[in-house]
Design brief:
It contains 4 helices and no strands. By secondary structure, it is mainly α.
Length: 205
C-alpha cells in the first residue's frame, strides 16, 4: 500500500509552524510563522513597541476623557456640595454662637441692671427705715422726757409738801420747847401767841 508524502509547504523545518499546523489542522501562513517565531524568540512587552502606540494613545485619551467627565460632572460637584454644606453649617453654627453670645450679654446686662436697681432700692428702704426708726426713737425719747419731767415735778411737789409739813412740825416743836423753857424759868406758861412770837424772833419760821 502506498503512503502519501508529508506536506512540507513553506515550513522549511520550522518547529513552531509545524506545531501550529498540527494544532489547527491546516497550514499556517508564512508571515504568521515568522511572527510567532519572532515572538517566541524575543519575549518583550508589546506596549513598548512603536506599532502599538496609536491604539494605546487612543485608549489613554478615551480613559482621560471618561475620568475628566466623571470628575467634572460627578465627583467634583459632589465634593463641592459637601464643602459648601460644611461651610454653610460652620457659618450657621458661628452665627448661632454669636446670637447666643449676644443674648447672654444682654441677659447679663439686664441682670446687672436689676442688681444695681435692687441695691439702690435696698439703700433707699434702709434709709427710710433708719429715718423712721430715728423719728420713732425721738418721739419715744420726747415722750419719756416728758414723762420724767412730769414725775420730777410731782416729786418736787411732794418734796415741797413734805418740807412744808416738816417745817410746820419744827415750828410746833420749837413753840412747845420755848413754852416749856419759859414755864420752867418763870414758873408760868406763856400763851400760844407769845410762844409763836418768840419762835419768830429766833428765825425758826
Amino acid at each position: 500500500m502506498a503512503t502519501s508524502p508529508t506536506p512540507t509547504g513553506d515550513h522549511d523545518g520550522n518547529p513552531a509552524a509545524e506545531a501550529a499546523e498540527a494544532v489547527h489542522g491546516h497550514e499556517v501562513p508564512a508571515g504568521t510563522t515568522e511572527v510567532a517565531a519572532h515572538g517566541g524568540e524575543g519575549g518583550g512587552l508589546p506596549q513598548f513597541e512603536f506599532e502599538y502606540w496609536g491604539g494605546q494613545i487612543v485608549w489613554l485619551l478615551l480613559l482621560f476623557a471618561i475620568l475628566y467627565f466623571l470628575l467634572a460632572r460627578v465627583f467634583i460637584p459632589r465634593l463641592r456640595k459637601v464643602v459648601d454644606t460644611r461651610a454653610e453649617t460652620i457659618a450657621g453654627a458661628l452665627e448661632e454662637a454669636r446670637r447666643v453670645q449676644a443674648e447672654a450679654d444682654a441677659q447679663a446686662a439686664a441682670a446687672q441692671a436689676e442688681i444695681t436697681q435692687g441695691r439702690t432700692e435696698a439703700r433707699r428702704v434702709a434709709a427710710e427705715a433708719q429715718a423712721k426708726a430715728a423719728a420713732e426713737f425721738a418721739a419715744r425719747q420726747a415722750a419719756e422726757d416728758q414723762r420724767l419731767a412730769g414725775q420730777m415735778e410731782e416729786a418736787e411737789a411732794r418734796i415741797r409738801a413734805m418740807r412744808d409739813r416738816a417745817m410746820g412740825n419744827v415750828q410746833g416743836i420749837a413753840s412747845d420747847t420755848a413754852t416749856a423753857i419759859v414755864e420752867k424759868l418763870t414758873g408760868a406758861a406763856p400763851s400760844p401767841a407769845e410762844s409763836a412770837a418768840m419762835v419768830a424772833r429766833q428765825g425758826v419760821a
